[in-house]
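Entry type: protein chain
Record version: 2
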Amino acid sequence: MSEPAVQEILGTGRRIPFHPERFRWEGIEPQAYKFSLGEERGFGWRGVTRFVIGGPPEAPCRFQLRYFELAPGGYSSLEKHQHIHFIIVIRGRGKALVGPEVFEVTPFDVVYVPPEVPHRWINDGDEPFGFLCPVDAERDPPRPVDEAEWRALKRNPITAPYVF
């Protein structure tokens, strides 16, 4: 069978080489984490870089695989949305604020965030903190927490240090 026929029958894959010395994937450029959304109820963020490793427009599929990296002192916005998060830590150490809890996370830990649960990722260490985050390609946008959630998080001694 000729080569085009094999590809036509079996399809083709794609390999994206990883360069551990730079902790980057070949050809995957950093993107803005978010456009400025203001400081409304914790929507501010600092030191976050986003990489889309796979998914549209690279491939006609229904998901995106993203890698987020937080610089030392970095944190994501405090937000909620209808879609779930299921992140896998692959670099450094960090914290995950998920509802009323704050988890210490290290490489290969997995964190599940249910729909509509406020969450934030925090790097209070000296090294970069990075995680993989697969999501549906079509998903709802993040929203700030509401006033009742904000007050509850501020009153909770576990989450209060990370609510700003």
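Comment: The chain has a mean pLDDT of 90.
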